[in-house]
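User: Here's a chain of 412 residues. Predict its fold as tokens.
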Amino acid sequence: MNFDFSPKTEALQARLTAFMESHIYPNEPRYHAHVNGPDRWEPVSVIEELKPVARSAGLWNLFLPDSDRGAGLTNLEYAPLCEIMGRSPMAPEVFNCSAPDTGNMEVIERYGSPELKARWLEPLLAGEIRSCYAMTEPAVASSDATNIESSIQRDGDHYILNGRKWWTSGAGDPRCKVAIFMGKTDRAAPKHKQQSMIVVPMDAPGVTVRRMLTVFGYDHAPHGHGEVTFENVRVPAGNLLLGEGRGFEIAQGRLGPGRIHHCMRLIGVAERALEGMCRRVQSRVAFGKTLAEQGAIRKDIADCRIEIEQARLLVLKAAYMMDTVGNKAARAEIAMIKVVAPNVALRVLDRAIQAHGGAGVCQDFEWAAAWANSRTLRLADGPDEVHSESVARLELKKHETKVGQALSPANP
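Assistant: Prediction complete.
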């Protein structure tokens, strides 16, 4: 693997960094004032103002690979850009690179009909609407997606949808106009061929956002995480993606790049937390010397740097493998980064909080909110335990012995 970024990536890194310094960081106080204010469930005005600026700067839809609708970047080229955007909670949406829209756009681009692309993909790519992904269900252990109980039943030239979903992130946004819904079309089919995915307008009769869920007390307005019911929702048969029984195939195609995006954004979060920690400990004095002069803090700073570098290299390796040998061959690396990145970010954030003392746990700094958001990513796209199981299974398979072959001291 060549660890040097391409000239194209380096140029985009420089442009993106300059945009962050000129437009994102100075406007974060406006962003935080909005999302903590009385109108927090309305679109954030400063983000809407900056979208056309980002688009005119050529920093728009950078995420979309293998498509003339995007920037034409590989996963490896996009990864460091995603890290830069991850440094600010408002940045990804400014560049139209925020979840779950990125994954949904990739799905519609890859599997949607021309009609679905015209109706939903175009306004999503333009940043005019938002979307959500309705998969997880409160009544079953959704870490095993074969447990999904929602139904998608054919009725003439339509499908009828029924189900109760939650953690449908983005459903609280008034601009959320479309969902991708996962349910079962054939309960008698093989276990991984029962599920399908279908595109559902959020204003279809029978779609109801019941409540918004909090994350450690944060409501993540205006994005939000909804509990949504689908009661006899009728959608055209042409809205089905790829075909009946191919939901798992779509999910695997969707989740690989999405995990890269999450993990690189988390590294951006960790980098910014480490920077804030270093500034803090050099400016605060306790027991006659700055915190930066005290051994425990210095050990924490060193551990942060070591862990961030390890995580970044593993993510870049996974991105490289996805580009060169495909998501299936890179499944172990994808699973590993999904475990490593959020845990590293959480450890770095915890140290930053500790270094800030009481200020670290309140709204004066962003570390507590960033910790709460990062903690959810040990569950999103599958919990740590599922990914660790995948890694262990693949590792054990490398060392399987033939049936009847016994290991001996002479043949270890």
